Amino acid sequence: MHGLHGVLHGEGTVQTEQGQVRVAIQHGTVSQVSGSNVTVQSSDGFTRTWSVGSDTKVVSMRTGLQSGQIGMGSAVFVAGTVQGTGSSATYSATYILMHTMHGGGMKGSPEPSGPAPAS
C-alpha cells in the first residue's frame, strides 16, 4: 500500500477477468461501529459507511483479526467494492488494515500493562 500513502479516499474502476469492478479506498479513523457496518472518517472530514462481512480480511500488525475487534478510534485503511450509484451506493469492505489503536482501540483487547514488578 506504499503507493497509496497520502490518499485519504477515492474510487475507481479496475478490470478483472470477470469484467470491470468499481472499487473504493479510504484512510481514516473509525467513528462508529454498528452491527456489520463501520463508519470511517478521513482527516478532511469525509465519512463513509462500509459493510463488513464474514469474508472481510481484517489485519493488524500482520495478524488476522475478527471483524468484531474493530473499535472506535482505530486508524484504518479500508479497500472494497462499490455497488450502485449516487446516494444509494453501498460500500463493501474487502480489506481493513488497522494501523494503530486510538481511544477505544480494538474491542476485547487487554489494557496495556506496566513493567513486571521487581522480585
Task: Describe the protein.
By secondary structure, the chain is mostly beta strands. Helix content is 0%, strand content 53%. The protein is globular, with a radius of gyration of 16 Å.
What are the key terms here?
disordered C terminus
Count the E strands: 8
As an assembly, this protein is single chain
Q: Could you tell me how far the N terminus lies from the C terminus, measured between alpha carbons in angstroms?
A: 45 Å
* Mean pLDDT rating: 79
Give the helix tally: 0
Low-confidence stretches: 101-119
Q: How are helices and strands ordered from N to C?
A: EEEEEEEE
Structural class: mainly beta
Helix coverage percent: under 10%
Please give the radius of gyration in angstroms: 16 Å
Give the CA-based shape: globular
Biggest β-sheet: count, sense, barrel?
8 strands, mixed
Q: Percent of residues in beta strands?
A: over 45%
Task: Walk me through the topology.
Blueprint: E1 9-16, E2 19-34, E3 37-41, E4 47-51, E5 57-60, E6 63-65, E7 74-83, E8 90-101
Parallel strand pairs: 5-8
Antiparallel strand pairs: 1-2, 2-3, 2-7, 3-4, 5-6, 7-8
Concise summary:
With 119 residues, this protein is mainly β.
